[in-house]
Design goal:
alpha/beta, 7-stranded parallel sheet, 15 helices
């Protein structure tokens, strides 16, 4: 029996006939067995490498085969933008077997929330902070709402594991286990990291389920990396404008003020420029992401919000102004490039001060 054959018959039919999959990617094949066997998992694959399907196909198979009742699955991510980006895809997969998805975060209005509480969906998509608010609210019957919970999927799990938000998420998982009275299955999705076993240990918490790291082999990438000391933001914008004219590029700046400043510098040079950071309105962020995804000769200047798996289409180049905070951030950002046939991952560092060069 192949891994695919272990999925519920209804889901097998929908994957091939409705969704049009002719085959599964290696990471998707390898994830089916441990999830259906009830193991906690950390699933490693690059952005757009198929992690979402790797987790949700076997989880939806469980929902279908075991006829799990809402809310049976929680999907959580570090940022709202990633939830917004994934909502349509996850909802489409769930709908193939007659199941529903609801997204709950700060941009979702009270009327929609009340409808969900009156008639819960099978899959809840939320951030840890919004989940905390639900557990604390007197208006949310949390124990009744989560009594059927079976699985929690943590996207970009590496972004939580070494952060205070990770400790917060750990406590939420333990509280949810008490609410539903069972050892919840935990599935973490991540880009390539150097310490997946440590992340798995953190994700498991007090769970007694067996844990496994799913990491399919990858061909060598031979990325192209360059570093240029430009001295100031004005020079950085000049280089960014001239270096990849006519191409699509994603430029990371590690502060909201820096994003605004650099975006203004690029716009003044006639570059079609979009901005992405946490202080923008929901509409402005979505418009920027959509316009950038559909464009060809343009740049999007962003904080770390766009390193976490958000689909902005095919990218030609990634530029980093000064230095990211961690090696993991650098790998995640560079991994946004090199996905088309014949392309290679690449990153250009433009340092505005000598300490950033070091």
């Amino acid at each position: 029996m192949s891994a695919f054959d272990r999925l519920s018959p209804a889901l097998q039919y929908q994957i091939t006939q409705t969704l049009g999959f002719s085959s599964l990617r290696p990471v998707q094949e390898l994830t089916i067995a441990p999830v259906l066997d009830g193991k906690n998992c950390v699933v490693l694959a690059p952005t757009a490498g198929g992690k979402t399907e790797a987790a949700f196909f076997p989880v939806l198979s469980r929902v279908d085969a075991e006829d799990l009742r809402p809310v049976s699955v929680i999907y959580t991510s570090p940022i709202r933008a990633l939830l917004n980006n994934q909502e349509e895809r996850v909802a489409r997969y769930a709908a193939t077997i007659g199941r529903r998805v609801f997204k709950w975060h700060g941009d979702v209005g009270p009327t929609q929330r009340r409808r969900f509480l009156d008639d819960p969906a099978d899959i809840l998509m939320t951030t840890p902070e919004s989940l905390e608010a639900m557990l604390m609210s007197t208006r949310v019957p949390a124990r009744r709402l989560f009594e059927g919970l079976e699985v929690v999927i943590v996207d970009e799990v590496h972004a939580f594991a070494d952060d205070d938000r990770g400790a917060h998420l750990s406590s939420l998982l333990e509280r949810l286990s008490r609410y539903c009275g069972r050892d919840i299955q935990r599935i973490g999705l991540s880009a390539t990291v150097g310490n997946p076993e440590e992340i798995l240990d953190w994700l498991r918490g007090r769970s007694r389920r067996e844990g496994v790291v799913v990491s399919p082999p990858r061909p060598p990438a031979n990325p192209q990396i360059s570093l240029d000391f430009v001295g100031n933001v004005t020079n950085a914008a000049l280089v960014a404008e001239q270096l990849h004219r006519g191409r699509k590029r994603l430029i990371f700046v590690d502060s909201r003020r820096g994003v605004e400043e650099f975006g203004n510098e690029l716009s003044a040079r006639g570059v079609s420029t979009f901005l992405a950071h946490g202080s923008l309105s929901v509409t402005a962020r979505r418009d920027a992401e959509r316009a950038f995804a559909e464009g060809s000769d343009c740049a999007i200047v962003a904080t770390s919000a766009l390193e976490l798996g958000i689909d902005v289409g095919d990218l030609d180049h990634v530029l980093q102004i000064d230095c990211p905070g961690t090696v993991a951030s650098f790998l995640q950002r560079m991994g946004r490039t090199g996905r088309r046939a014949g392309a290679v991952p690449n990153c250009t560092f433009l340092a505005t001060k000598e300490s950033a060069v070091l």
